[in-house]
């Protein structure tokens, strides 16, 4: 299992609007295609106006196929303009859990 961690820095004060529209519309579309939502967070201390969401995938191929299906979905394409102007920057990381992680992991080869 691997985890995709997406971090978005939003415009100042945009977190409530972003979370509202994602909660009402976007998350159901994402879950339909991406599946394993591990967590969705907003920052309280440290970097402000930040959103982090983490998705679990079986492999990079699984992630690529699921992301492609999401990108091709007309509902998702119609949703994106609702959040696009709220986002200032984005970062994406692929993470693998350590063998002792609560999420499970394997010994490095």
From TrEMBL:
Keywords noted in UniProt: Plasmid
Gene3D superfamilies found in the cross-reference section: 3.30.70.100
Occurrences of domain NIPSNAP (ranges): 3-102
InterPro entries, A to Z: Dimeric_a/b-barrel (IPR011008), NIPSNAP (IPR012577), NipSnap_domain (IPR051557)
One Pfam family cited in the UniProt record for this chain: NIPSNAP
Transmembrane stretches, start-end: none
Family statement: Belongs to the NipSnap family.
Protein name: NIPSNAP family protein
Lineage: Bacteria, Pseudomonadati, Pseudomonadota, Alphaproteobacteria, Hyphomicrobiales
């Amino acid at each position: 299992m691997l985890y995709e961690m997406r971090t978005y820095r939003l415009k100042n004060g945009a977190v409530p609007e972003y979370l509202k529209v994602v909660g009402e519309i976007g998350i159901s579309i994402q879950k339909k295609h991406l599946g394993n939502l591990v967590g969705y967070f907003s920052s309280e201390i440290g970097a402000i106006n930040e959103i982090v969401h983490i998705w679990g995938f079986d492999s990079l191929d699984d992630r690529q196929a699921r992301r492609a299906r999401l990108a091709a979905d007309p509902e998702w394409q119609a949703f994106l303009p609702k959040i696009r102007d709220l986002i200032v920057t984005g970062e994406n990381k692929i993470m693998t859990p350590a063998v002792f992680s609560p999420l499970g992991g394997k010994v490095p080869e």
